[in-house]
Design goal:
The protein is α/β, with parallel strands linked by helices and 499 residues long. It has 21 helices and twelve strands.
């Protein structure tokens, strides 16, 4: 459904960023053409869906209903009461089921385009599995009767696997859907602005702990670090403080997102990945658990958007795992060992953090910095930097015959490929990412060695640019190499402000 040329509401100042999402919702809700529309809004918990949808409803005089886990009878009663308040009439006494309720909801659009929002729709479907079919039938009745209806029904949900099933290819609602919108976390640049942090080093550290989830800013109130020296105290006063909501947020998040499925195995799997296990087999071996159970657990985490699995840049059949929610990575890499002994509750947070900080720097901040570098390549870098628009930016590994005894693989934190006109796409760049290390010419020499290894494996590296990404800076020798066009250098300032 493409929008007609009508006046749309200006995004309220209370909604941070989300410009594209607001424009899409406003265009859908304000479309004046005849015919009822159906929109779907998905996204994990705490990303601001409800705030955004309530703002849209308020701006356009729409109807909003927030579903809860309750019986069908209670949900229908609550919906009837909300509609009565909205229409300034008596609550309906004639509803026999969801068929009547859906007809009444859609009737709100008989006179004008109006957004009709049902938030946390999966909660209703759990109570009433036939509900999607009832909605499909209601739309069909409108079409069959030719009624001039402009209802704009928006169904929102946080349970991603359920939302995919409800609106997937096999769903009766699929053919009715005019808008599909997914609300994700703020990207790292948006998050820095949201937290009012100007120092890119501090912004990255805070993002490595709480990511881009808007709700976490509200959880801690005014307790925001003002400068880099405040970071340690901020961690101790928020995530490590039992009196703050963030203290147990990782546990609550996992419980809510996985719908209570074997949380012990999920926690252990995340701890294994945070400690360096990157494949399903490595996780199963680390846990001493059957591979089938581990695969099921990891699939659940991936379906809920908490885990990402992507192909290795140089060995596509090797799928590497990465925790996508920074708070979960922080919890399971740095804090998890102290949960079992209740040390966080019984000891001074500063003492615990002093022991944890080296682990945070190596196992959390370092990998997080590498991911931020890959995000920069895909979302912010000028295509001219790599000679073509990047199609992928991924971690890569390859055997290094020069290592004694066939030692560990050599790693490339940022391998950039162009459009896939071949099976794997042209290799545009290979890069090393070092969070807390000043990079020198020996890093460039290592990258050249990796390019030789790749060439020996048949990779075309003729136009591949070596790149160094550093959170600590570069020596004058490496800067001179950059000036001579031998290497691409990306520091924190460029990651947060440049292209």
């Amino acid at each position: 459904m493409s929008p007609s040329d009508v006046s749309r509401p200006v995004k309220p100042k209370t909604v941070f960023d989300r410009d594209a999402e607001w424009d899409a919702l406003a265009a859908f809700a304000c479309d004046t053409r005849p015919g009822a529309g159906l929109g779907v809004v998905s996204g994990r918990l705490r990303q601001g869906k409800t705030h955004l949808l309530k703002a849209l409803s308020s701006a356009l005089g729409g109807f909003y209903f927030g579903a809860q886990s309750a019986t069908q009878a209670e949900s229908l009663r609550r919906l009837g009461d909300e509609m009565a308040r909205y229409t300034v009439t008596s609550p309906p006494s004639h509803w026999h089921g969801w068929e009547d309720a859906i007809d009444a909801l859609l009737a709100l659009g008989d006179r004008r385009p109006v957004p009709i929002i049902v938030d946390e729709f999966p909660d209703l479907v759990r109570q009433s599995p036939p509900l999607p079919s009832a909605i499909h039938s209601a739309y069909q009745r409108l079409r069959d009767t030719g009624r001039d209806n402009r209802a704009r029904l928006l169904l929102s949900g946080s349970t991603l696997p359920v939302m995919r099933r409800l609106f997937g290819a096999a769903s009766p609602l699929r053919e009715l859907t005019n808008l599909e919108l997914t609300l994700g976390p703020l990207d790292y640049r948006q998050a820095a602005r949201f937290w009012n942090i100007d120092d890119p080093g501090l912004a990255l550290l805070v993002h490595a702990v709480v990511g881009g989830t808007p709700a976490y800013r509200r959880y801690i109130g005014a307790h925001v670090p003002g400068e880099l020296d405040d970071f340690d105290a901020w961690v101790c006063g928020t995530v490590l403080c039992p009196q703050t909501p963030l203290f147990l947020e990782a546990h609550h998040l996992l419980q809510e997102e996985t719908d209570h499925w074997d949380r012990a195995l999920c926690h252990s799997a995340l701890a294994a990945i945070a400690s360096g296990c990157s494949t399903q087999g490595e996780v199963a071996e680390h846990l001493g658990a059957p591979l089938t159970d581990v695969v099921r657990c990891l699939t659940l985490l991936r379906d809920n958007g908490l885990l990402h699995g992507g192909p290795d840049a140089f060995r596509p059949n090797l799928i590497g795992l990465r925790i996508t929610e920074p708070l979960l990575a922080f919890e399971h890499a740095a804090i998890w060992p102290y949960r079992s002994a209740s040390e966080l509750e019984q000891q001074d947070a500063a003492e615990v953090w002093q022991r944890v900080r080296p682990v945070f720097d190596s196992a959390v901040a370092g990998p997080h910095f590498a991911q931020i570098c890959r995000d920069w390549v895909m979302d912010f870098a000028d295509p001219a930097v790599f000679g073509a628009r990047p199609a992928t930016a991924a971690h890569g590994s390859l055997p290094d015959p020069a290592r004694d005894g066939g030692g560990p693989d050599a790693h490339v934190e940022v391998a950039v490929r162009g459009p896939a006109d071949t099976r794997s796409g042209a290799l545009l760049s290979v890069g090393m990412a070092r969070w807390d290390e000043v990079m020198d010419l020996h890093h460039l020499e290592h990258l050249r060695h990796l390019l030789d290894l790749l060439a020996a494996r048949g990779e075309d590296v003729t136009h591949t640019r070596p790149a160094c990404y550093s959170g600590a800076g570069f020596t004058s020798g490496l800067r001179e190499a950059e000036a001579n066009g031998h290497v691409l250098l990306v520091d924190l300032d460029r990651l947060y402000r440049g292209r």
